[in-house]
Design goal:
Layout: E1 2-4, H1 9-36, H2 39-60, E2 62-66, E3 70-75, E4 78-83, E5 87-93, E6 106-113, E7 116-122, H3 127-138, E8 140-142, E9 151-153, H4 155-164
Antiparallel strand pairs: 1-2, 2-3, 3-4, 5-6, 5-9, 6-7, 8-9
Helix pairs in contact: 1-2
């Protein structure tokens, strides 16, 4: 199932203003570089144009998809696929680090990648429906005690995973 990213007006506004500035600045730099015969400014105008396109692409193509075995994350030109069986924990977060999310109301998804533990911050619309779906596919359940509000791998899933590795 496909889920769009939640949109924080401040973050979306920032990306919109940045893309407009980059898309206006690129041709201006190109004109100046042509007039003064500067290859450096010409290259800079190409980079600025790419940044403007990247900002627009991020605004219009940030989403999440849960398939039978993967959580797929799209953010502009960037793509990521996390196998559902590697998801260990999902925790609500307001972390402001760079992430494939258009809102600061986020979910931190912790997962195993080989011998390393990784995490990614996402912000799906229909958060409860998204959590219910991902928990079902990934074998997660609501945590008890100090971790309340988080979702963790079921004990039975951990036992079967560890018994298969022996």
């Amino acid at each position: 199932m496909h889920y769009a990213s939640q949109r924080d007006p401040q973050l979306v506004g920032l990306l919109q203003r940045a893309s407009v500035a980059f898309l206006i600045g690129a041709p201006l730099l190109a004109i100046v570089s042509w007039r003064i015969h500067s290859e450096l400014l010409a290259m800079l105008s190409a980079v600025v144009l790419a940044l403007g396109i990247g900002c627009l692409w991020t605004l219009h193509a940030t989403s999440y998809e849960i398939t039978a075995d993967r959580l797929r994350i799209r953010c502009g030109p960037s793509r990521m696929a996390i196998p559902c069986e590697t998801v260990l924990r999902i925790t609500p977060s307001t972390d402001r680090r760079n992430a494939p999310a258009l809102s600061f109301d986020r979910l931190q998804v912790d997962y195993d990648q080989g011998k390393r533990r990784r995490s990614v911050l996402i912000s799906p619309v229909n958060r409860n429906q998204f959590l219910e779906h991902l928990c079902k596919v990934a074998g997660l359940e609501m945590a008890q005690g100090a971790d309340e509000g988080s979702y963790v791998r079921r004990e039975s899933s951990l036992k079967t995973d560890s018994s298969q590795t022996r």
